[in-house]
Amino acid sequence: MVNIGLRQRAPELVAFLGNYGRTYEQINEALLYMKDNDAEPPEAATWYLKTHESTWMEWVPSAVAKKVKAALP
C-alpha cells in the first residue's frame, strides 16, 4: 500500500516495491553472514546481490540489473 502521491511522483519506486520480496530464510542467512564475517550492512548487501542474483533481478528492469551487476566488486 502506497500513498497516491508516491505513485505519481515515483512510479519506478512503486514498481520496485511491488516486485520486492525476500524470505525469512534469506534474511536470516544475510544476518548470519554479517555475524560470521563481522560484516557491515554494505558488505552484506554486496554478498546478498552476488549470492541471490536470480531473486533480486526479478525486482528491477533488466537494464537496471545489468548496471547493478557491472557495479559489483
Can you put this structure into words, describing what you see?
By secondary structure, the chain is mainly α. The protein has one domain. Helices cover 73% and strands 0% of the residues. It has helices spanning 4-9, 11-19, 24-36, 41-51, 53-56, 62-71. Helix 3 (24-36) crosses helix 4 (41-51). The longest helix is centred in the middle third of the chain and has 13 residues, at 24-36. The protein is globular, with a radius of gyration of 14 Å. The N and C termini lie far apart (34 Å). The model has no long low-confidence stretch (mean pLDDT 91).
The secondary structure category is mainly alpha
N-to-C series of helices and strands? HHHHHH
Instruction: Give the percentage of residues in beta strands.
Output: under 5%
Number of domains: 1
Which range best describes the helical content: under 10%, 10-25%, 25-40%, 40-55%, 55-70% or over 70%?
over 70%
Which features would summarize this protein structure in a list?
73 residues, mainly alpha, 6 helices, 0% strand, globular
SSE blueprint:
Layout lengths: L3 H6 L1 H9 L4 H13 L4 H11 L1 H4 L5 H10 L2
Helix pairs in contact: 3-4
